[in-house]
Amino acid sequence: MVVDRSGTNRLPWSSLARVSPNVQVAGGVAAIMGAAAVMWSYRRTVATTPRTVNDEWRAARAKMDLSKERVAGEPVEVNPIRHAGKQKL
Known about the structure:
By secondary structure, this protein is mainly alpha-helical. About 45% of the residues lie in helices and about 0% in strands.
């Protein structure tokens, strides 16, 4: 492998020059995805519910979701997966 000594291929660690560019790209993508996963996980655990979302809003939203009307039949629930565990088969 030829090392580029023109000064355009600057790597923070000289040992990375021995690694193929494809592996460098894959490693960079993996590092970015890992950082994004850590930030997402942190945000999920630390985030609070907005102050506008209270019990009254949740009840009204559940009532609205369950009462969506169709032209050709009975009301249909917008998100059937949410209540799938409550139904008895």
